[in-house]
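so my prof wants the structure for this chain in the tokens format not the other one, which i didnt know existed until like an hour ago. anyway here's the sequence
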Amino acid sequence: MTAGHKGLGKGLGSLFGEELTETQGTVSQVELRQIEPNPAQPRRDFAEEALAQLAESIRENGLISPITVRKTDTGYQIVAGERRWRACRLAGLDKVPVMVVEADDKLAFEMAMIENLQREDLNPLEEAEGYRELMDRFHMTQEEVARKVGKSRPAVANALRLLGLPEPVRELVRTGELSQGHARTLLGLSKEETLIKAAETVLTYGLSVRQTEKLVKRLEQLDQGEEEEPILDEGQIYIDELEHRLAQVTGRKISISQGKGKGRITIEYYGNEDLESLTQVIYSMKKQ
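here's what i got, hopefully its the right format
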């Protein structure tokens, strides 16, 4: 089987190819107590509320999608479907439908990764940690990981960059408080202490990624001794962003000067006709 047939878009079944035996792929009922989770499962976080909702659905309708498992000396181990297994436990089921497959540790981990990626169940850190596990544990290159999970190599490389974040910032990404875009931008800071403080600033002021880029540039200049000004005023970042947004909307250069208790907005115009058009816009604002 060629590598091109093993990508994310083909689903879990495409991972097997000639590796499938005649007994694989059949669904049977197994006692829930015989099934155990895989400690190498790439997903770590399971939202309690969503799990409770799934459990209620299973009580009403049963488990529609079988849990994929492999046989062990003591019973079965989950290959894909731990969230459904957890929900079945909450729902009080005694038996569940399973599909038994033959899979070594590498194939089992790949299947778990692919299922979670297809369902968009992994947070950015879990995804990055999963890629790292494939590379470290199974000696795969970034190119091989990308091909296996149906992603581009740059996408895998960008995800792996998140693992370079300090733990406090990684936790913010893990919980969804900080976006991947913000986190990757913060990686432009060379000092860990500065990076952590910058992440706090991003959250405190609700900075956009563009504003964060400006913050990172100034903070890095300060850390490198290239600038002697005091730490960047976050309020100025906000003003810069407003200027940019107003310029995009109006098609004109906008300058905002802020003083103590008052400020000034300067709008460029280009000829009398443009001035008349701008005046009409201001008049219409007054009528509203």
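also thought this was worth mentioning. Residues 236-287 form one domain.
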